Fold this sequence. Notes:
This protein has 8 helices and 9 strands. By secondary structure, the chain is α+β, with helices and mostly antiparallel strands. It has a single domain (about 20-225), classed as Replication Fork Single-Stranded DNA Binding Protein. The strands form 2 sheets. Strands 1, 2, 3, 4, 7, 8 and 9 form a 7-stranded antiparallel sheet that branches. It has a two-stranded antiparallel sheet with strand order 5-6. Zinc ion (ZN) binds near residues 69, 82 and 93.
Amino acid sequence: MNLSYLKRGTDAMKELENPVMSGGSSGKILRFYLKKDQSALLTFLDGSLLPMSETNGELVFDVPGTYEHSFMHEGVVADFICTLESEGRCPLCDERKYRFYNLFFTAIDHRKNVSKQGKVFEYNKRIVAVNRDAYKMLLKFLDERIDPQLGFVGLQMQAEKVKAKSSMIGDFFKFRGYVDLDQLKAQGMDVEPLDFSKVLVYRNCETLEKMGFGKVQAGTFQNTPYENVDDSSELMPLDDDTIPF
Length: 245
Ligand SMILES: [Zn+2]
């Protein structure tokens, strides 16, 4: 019997050592998220700074950003790009759903995760979505330590979530230093930053309407998703096909 997918001996052991990258076989990239009292070591793969001479001495990260609506949808927190700026209207804004402006970074989450199927994920590449509050906190803790030549590229930090209602990436950040990404690459780690034009799914107005959005009459603002989510629930289960990215 030839079971070619089974590895043996040295090869099998080698695979055991191999960190599984980028959400494993499904190839889906999840967002970095901390529950209350969790912490994680992150290594940023992108986030260089524009030359200070062009920004009046301000820290401006050369990363993409957009308005998003994030809310519980079909059992998970889903993120939808707001179409207001690009198309002049947005079914989700029509529903008075709260929107955030997010900046997007790529980082490796050093935590070990075990999926429901028992698969071990380590050194997972994650989308780090940073809203205004989170950005302020990041700068508050890291400002002095950021190397203007490197920005966030290769920066390692410990992220912690002390308060349940803080941003999804946490509220306490500790600078751990800079690592040489080329060196990590030489060790077999995937240090390629994400191409957000491919990773973030843009659904136009029409598609959002077909999904049933925009039919609710405008009323009061709905609450932000992360304030209302029960922290004990599994927000972003691995291997869950309902996550829209
Ligand atoms: Zn909108």
